[in-house]
Write a structure and sequence with these properties.
This protein has about 850 residues and is mostly beta strands. The chain contains 2 helices and 63 strands. The strands form 16 sheets. It has a 4-stranded antiparallel β-sheet, with no helix packed on it. The protein has a 4-stranded antiparallel β-sheet with strand order 2-3-4-5, with no helix packed on it. Strands 6-7-8-9 form a 4-stranded antiparallel β-sheet, with no helix packed on it. The radius of gyration is 28 Å and the shape is elongated. It starts with about 40 loop residues before the first helix and ends with a strand.
Length: about 850
């Protein structure tokens, strides 16, 4: 595998949206179809989910939050310990949501991509041969919304950031909040082909703003226009200074006229924002006229523009859908905007008219127009008649780029990454090889018996299985969500999609029945000490004792607090001990409820509210100490409060152990089972470790992009690696220290080791591997938690080298045990968990 990332530690933070083609969910156990309770598009739901975690409970996040957090990460990384580094795991065969594609006008093989969550990318080989490389900018880019190359000097580039679909949204309610998928930091500029970057329009302290489109005067590389959330900005000095020449909010697109630097048409509006419509200036932006003759007035989505070789001809794709009936208008002007005609009302944008659509005019064959929204159509007569609609590529289209000299080549950026056609749209080619931008959610799984088996769910791209190869296997649809793998039998595993639609390898559809509010990405877990036991959370938490074959209510069928479960963790040694976090479904919550944390110690018969002194933040993840289930950690999203809290008494009290961690939404936490005082957390800028149970914190980011949004952290026990699932750059792994084995003081001789017990946890039998540096008399024995010897697994003189012995656990009660190896006056131990 070509290590495409090792030399490019570029920046990123992730953006979110969901699968627009909402999958028809299978019915629940009670026959009810489980779908969005709000009737809006999947993309809107995912944007809400991303933003709510970061804005709760105020409805906004501080405009400078990411910049301050990134500065904290940089300071901590300067003192990071040396040693191991992160390595990418993939997937390399499926890209994440992509917002921009641009081709070098002088060299058609150089293609640039702007990903929604994975930063800026480039290929010098037309996207072929796994040639994508992430371009480091030195800035915490959360999303790349546009990439533009100066036609007169292709070493000059401008990059826009910040994906926003509703202006300054501070309104409550999940239905009213499909607004943003990322932070924004303004516009970046490079004058050396992308080698170095600087701020052109610096919005580092205004991260709620977004840049939708950048246009460069074809004759003057220093004359730059930008459509932004704040209006239309123009710079005539290469980005040194900017003027808001049209301060109508939510400018979504702009087109210029070759040979006339003072002429421009801009589109404004999304989700019914004030001043929506199409405007024209003929004096460089000093004055603007709204163009209304033939332009629909009742649209609530956005308008995307494209030009024709004839400068008087401009196309406008007008979208209108987010909830309920949808409609789309393709209109065009033949007289520079004075009048507009409706070309077609084919509803290609569908319910994504506010989010993902365009009309792309082939500059070489201007009667050939691609109409893209949810599906993709093509027209040979300027858009009046279409063909297609079922192109074999991913849905939700954001951008198109035509080859500068070959009329048959075009590139398509959409929610599944990047595709191209080389025959004018007759066939399509997947170019995602090497484009590591998949947006994972929380709830990934890593097999306890196989270090090459992992599962994860991805935004808008289903569920994926890793088998050790950089190309992963597609094993589920929808918005991939939480997963589980039986810790003793990895042929039993489950994936899920939004709203807790679970499918298992052994039982097929395995969702619990309806039970109140359900989170968009809802949790469910397997109990390591009893792998037949699953727990799943809606407002009501459910329990299965046959791996999803059937479900029963916990808590007497009552919800925990009326809110949806968002985080869940179960004890390593006691299947009856489960922690759950909950969150309201709106900001502010009109019912007056707040977030909560709960625990059961009797398998769900009853639950105890242990929220206590915890702040009102969304606790996205929980980690239970594998050696003591009364010790647990919860991590908080949002800004301005603590982010890591610890209990050592089962939730009776909590201590804020955030310490020096960056003030950023914190999404993931895990306790190292080999070193229970080692705690890892992941937030919107990276990964951090405490080696003293939360007392102090260090950076743990070597090898990762400069800023990476962490969705999940897990430890793979078989190869002792920490796995990080990112929301924009796929999954990575990093070797951890060898598990602790010495129980007596003094160093063990080289080559003396109790290597591993596998599988662990064990149900029936396990293999114990150990190594000797020389011939020694050995004793390998099994002890219970009280130190009583239960069995001798191997005894006598053994030669130097590696040896194995069998551990028969079939008659042992479930619980925690120790395997102890003695030889040459030394002793080492390993913990093993027996499950039933």
């Amino acid at each position: 595998m070509k290590l495409r990332y090792a030399l490019l530690p570029a920046v990123l933070l992730a953006a979110v949206a969901a699968w627009a083609l909402w999958p028809d969910a299978p019915p629940g156990a009670d026959g009810e179809t489980i779908r969005s309770p709000y009737g809006i598009s999947g993309a809107a739901e995912a944007l809400v989910w991303w933003e709510m975690q970061r804005a709760y409970p105020s409805g906004t996040f501080p405009s400078e939050g990411l910049t301050a957090a990134y500065a904290q990460r940089l300071a901590m990384s300067a003192t990071e310990r040396g040693g191991t580094q992160w390595e990418p795991m993939g997937p390399y065969n499926n890209g994440g949501r992509t917002l921009a594609v641009t081709i070098n006008p002088l060299r058609g093989e150089t293609v640039w991509l702007g990903s929604a969550g994975g930063g800026l990318w480039r290929s010098y080989e037309a996207g072929l041969n796994g040639s994508w490389e992430r371009v480091a900018t030195g800035f915490p880019i959360t999303s790349t919304t546009d990439v533009r190359i100066a036609p007169t000097d292709t070493s000059t580039l401008y990059v826009g950031t910040g994906e926003v679909y509703r202006y300054q949204d501070i309104q409550g309610g999940i239905v009213e909040r499909p607004t943003r998928g990322s932070y924004g930091i303004g516009i970046l500029k490079s004058t050396d082909g992308g080698a170095t970057w600087s701020h052109a329009l610096d919005w580092s302290l205004n991260q709620e703003r977004g840049v939708a489109r950048i246009r460069i005067n074809p004759s003057d590389k220093d004359d730059v226009w930008a459509a932004t959330t704040e209006g239309v900005y123009r710079s005539t000095d290469g980005g040194d200074t900017w003027t808001n020449v049209h301060p109508v909010v939510m400018a979504m697109d702009i087109v210029l006229r070759p040979g006339d630097p003072d002429w421009a048409i801009a589109s404004h509006g999304d989700q019914g924002s004030e001043g929506k419509g199409i405007y024209r200036t003929t004096d460089g932006g000093d004055t603007w006229t709204q163009l209304t003759n033939g332009v629909p007035s009742d649209f609530i989505g956005k308008i995307i523009l494209d030009t024709h070789p004839d400068p008087d001809i401009v196309y406008a794709s007008v979208g209108n859908g987010i909830k309920g009936p949808s409609s789309t208008w393709l209109i065009r002007t033949l007289d520079g905007g004075d009048t507009w005609e409706t070309v077609t009302t084919l509803d290609y944008a569908l319910y994504q008219g506010w989010f993902a659509h365009y009309a792309g005019v082939n500059p070489h064959r201007p009667d050939t127009v691609f109409l893209a929204g949810v599906p993709l159509y093509k027209s040979y007569d300027g858009g009046f008649n279409t063909v297609g609609g079922q192109a074999p590529i991913h849905v939700d289209h954001h951008a198109i780029a035509f080859h500068p000299t070959d009329p048959d080549i075009a590139y398509f950026a959409e929610d599944g990454g990047i595709y191209r056609t080389t025959d004018g749209g007759q066939t399509y080619e997947n170019l995602n090889d090497g484009y590591l931008t998949l947006q994972f959610y929380n709830g990934t799984s890593h097999a306890a018996t196989d270090s090459l088996f992992a599962l994860g769910g991805a935004q808008d791209n289903g569920s994926w299985r890793w088998t050790g190869d950089p190309d992963w296997l597609d094993v589920g649809g929808g918005d991939g969500s939480w997963t589980v793998i039986d810790p003793t039998d990895d042929s039993r595993w489950c994936t899920s999609s939004q709203y807790l639609n679970i499918r298992c390898s052994t039982t097929g559809f395995a969702s619990p029945p309806s039970g109140g509010n359900t989170a968009f990405i809802a949790p469910y877990v397997v109990a390591p000490s009893d792998p037949d036991r699953l727990y799943a959370g809606r407002a009501i938490v459910f329990r299965s004792d046959n791996f999803g074959g059937s479900w029963s209510f916990t808590n007497g069928g009552q919800s925990l607090d009326g809110n949806a479960a968002v985080g869940m963790a179960v004890s390593e040694t006691d299947a009856d001990v489960v922690y759950v976090t909950t969150a309201p479904d709106r900001i502010p919550n009109l019912l007056g409820s707040r977030t909560g944390v709960f625990v059961t110690r009797n398998g769900g018969d009853s639950w105890t509210d242990i929220t206590g002194s915890l702040p009102d933040r969304i606790f996205h993840d929980i980690a239970v100490d594998p050696s003591d289930d009364r010790t647990a950690y919860v991590v908080a999203a949002g800004f301005g409060a603590g982010h890591v809290f610890k209990t050592t008494d089962g939730g009776a009290s909590w201590t804020d152990v955030t310490g020096t961690l960056p003030d950023a939404p914190t999404n993931a936490v895990i306790v190292d089972p080999g070193f229970p005082t080692d705690v890892y957390v992941g937030n919107d800028v990276g990964v951090f470790v405490s080696r003293d149970g939360g007392g102090t914190w260090e950076s743990f980011n070597a090898g990762l992009p400069e800023a990476v949004m962490v969705s999940d952290l897990k430890v793979s026990p078989m190869d002792r690696t920490l796995r990080v699932a990112t929301h924009g750059n796929g999954m990575w792994k990093r070797p951890l220290e060898a598990a602790p084995v010495a129980t007596e003081p003094g160093a063990t001789p080289d080559g003396f080791a109790l290597e591993r017990v596998a599988p662990n946890p064990v149900r029936d039998a396990a293999t114990v591997a150990y190594r000797l540096p020389r011939a020694e008399a050995v004793r390998l024995a099994l002890y219970d938690a009280q130190g009583r010897r239960l069995a001798v697994l191997a005894e006598g003189t053994r030669p130097a080298g590696r040896h194995t012995a069998r551990l028969d656990a079939g008659r042992l009660p479930a619980g925690s045990y120790l395997v102890r190896l003695e030889a040459g006056g030394q002793a080492v131990t390993q913990r093993v968990t027996v499950v039933r």
